[in-house]
Design a protein that fits this description.
There is one protein chain. With 406 residues, the protein is mostly helical. Helices cover 81% and strands 0% of the residues. The radius of gyration is 20 Å and the shape is globular.
Amino acid sequence: MTSESYATSTEPAAVRGTDDPSVEAAAGGGPGAASWAPVTALTLGIGALVGSEFLPASVLPAMASDVGVSEGTAGLAVAATAIAGALTAPTIAVLLPRTDRRTVLIGLLAAAVLSNAVVAVTPNFPLLLAGRLLLGVAIAGFWSFALGAGTSAAPGRDHVVSTSLALGVSAATIVGVPLSSVLGDAVGWRPVFWAAAGLSLLALAAVVATLPPVPAQPGAGLGMLRQALANRRLMAGVGCIVLLAFGNFAAYPYIRLAIERVTSGTTVWLLLGWGVGGLAGNLAAGALSRRLGLAVVVAPLLLGASLLVLGTTSGLPVAVVAIVVWGFGFNMVPVATQLWVTRAEPKRVESALSLQVTAFQVAITAGSAIGGAVVDNGGVRGALLVGAAAALAGSIGFGLLARPRA
């Protein structure tokens, strides 16, 4: 694949008009079984990485006790991953401007295998933290390059590729986190991280076996990042992404507490409802790929409204609806915003995506910290209302960006 063909494959469908049958014919008759194998491998990789990111939350008490720190200190294992990701996302393309993205993705999955193995054998917290920092690098880099690599295998289907990657995230959070909690209780927390290392290794093998070479986007490097940063509309959108992601992560770590405000007997079912809503949200965002201006307004609007309702209701039926809508609204966000930034900056897709990843990692760190402080001082209702306000502000921001320019 030439650099020119890569540039074409990573541009959004709406920009390059890939519904033209001649384009699909030039790509080998359109995406078939062979072209979707790399996308499946990349989805597995995303699932393994995101599942690894949130593992400490599933086994926190046992892990903290084993390495000799408090549960609050052990919680830094998640924050450290997000901080490393925020620093890595905008810089990895600058440091590796011409390296084949297939090689980079394989290396990042290898780093995830090493990270989980280090945590599984660590005798102390500093080494555990080092492993988690390495995982942050792997997650941010993989997120930044996976969409471009996937669309190079399935040209003209960026919305389907993005939805597939987001489904990997949903599977990791909906299935992986509860399953790791059960496994941790049964056999201990260290085998959980060995299992994550094994899953990362499986994803690595799948990418090696299926993903063709993916040349770096022409012009990748510091110059591309500077040009993306100069795009005011893109940067305003990134600011909105921070707001709406912050809104979710100020509340999501405390979703169990929010449920227990209303009921104590149906927690598992309500968490499942959040997950089912999330899967539907992923698919809805993909279906709205041609109306992204609407999707990026509606998603945070639903998120903010659901958090507001959940924070003010005491009735179980209303809470059930709010939790399902919460899952639906937030899980629209990764797909919709990923596609939105590629439309806002079609010539510098890698840099645009890296800024989206940075926005999420910053929001995870800040949201979790501020949400925790609010919970400690005013209870979970305060965290839900803070999250609602931030998400609604993000919706308003995207609405203003959708207005015609003067």
